[in-house]
Structures are given as C-alpha cells and as structure tokens.
Amino acid sequence: MQLQLIVALIIVFLIVMFAIQNAVAVSVVFLLWRIDASLSSVIAACFGLGTLIGALITVPTMLRERILISRLRKQVEILRAENDSLNALKKDESALPYGH
After folding, report:
1. Within 10 A of 79 (CB to CB), how many other CB atoms are there?
2. For the residues of 40-99, what is the DSSP string, one character each?
3. Model confidence over 40-86: pLDDT tens digits?
4. Tens-place pLDDT, residues 22-52
5. Would you place residue 98 in the very low, low, confident or very high pLDDT band (cuts 50, 70, 90)?
C-alpha cells in the first residue's frame, strides 16, 4: 500500500514539474476555433480527450462481455443442477436390487 502511495506521489510530482516547465503559451487552431493556452494544459486536454474516446470505444464491448458472462453463469448453474439430479437418479437406481 505504501509503495502505491509513493509511486502516485512521484507521478504527481513529475506531472507538476512538467506543467511548470511547459507553461509557455501556444495557439491551437482547429477548423474555425483558435485557442491560446499553456502547452501543458493543451497536452493534458489532449490526453483527457484521448482517454475519453478510448473509454467510449471500449465500454460497449465490456458491457456485452459482462452480459454474456452473466448468461453463461446462469447456464452453468442450470447444467450443474441437472447434473446433480442425474447423479442422484443414478445413485437411486444403483441402490435398487437387480431383480426390479
């Protein structure tokens, strides 16, 4: 737990140092928009936008997989119950004398 905290603090320190060292103003032009901002904020915004797009692409697949896993678990439960009942039936039949 402490190792994770130390790693997180190091990462935060590096991000802050990056932001301080890259505080120069840049102009970003996209289609009809023009934005003047610091380089670090532009990079952070692009990173955040990329993360958002990645999440929007992967979330539907993850949801489909969870639904499929849920269905398969229910099917496994049904098959286990059927298997248990068949095993019980087999035991009952083997307990009967051979004459019947």
Report:
1. 10
2. HHHHHHHHHHHHHHHHHHHHHHHHHHHHHHHHHHHHHHHHHHHHHHHHHHHHHHHHS-TT
3. 888 888 888 998 999 999 999 999 999 999 999 999 999 999 999 99
4. 778 889 888 888 989 888 888 888 888 998 9
5. low
Could you give the CA distance from residue 58 to residue 54 in angstroms, rounded to a whole number?
Answer: 6
In contact, 40 and 19? CB cutoff 8 Å = yes
CA 30 – CA 49 distance, rounded (Å)? 15
State the amino acid at position 67 in one-letter form.
Answer: I
The reply to whether the predicted model has a pTM over 0.90 is: no
In sequence order, what are the residues at sequence separation of 6 or more whose Cβ sits closer than 8 angstroms to the Cβ of residue 41? Answer: 19
Query: What count of other Cβ atoms lies within 10 Å of the Cβ of residue 28?
Result: 13
> 14 by DSSP, 3-state: which?
helix
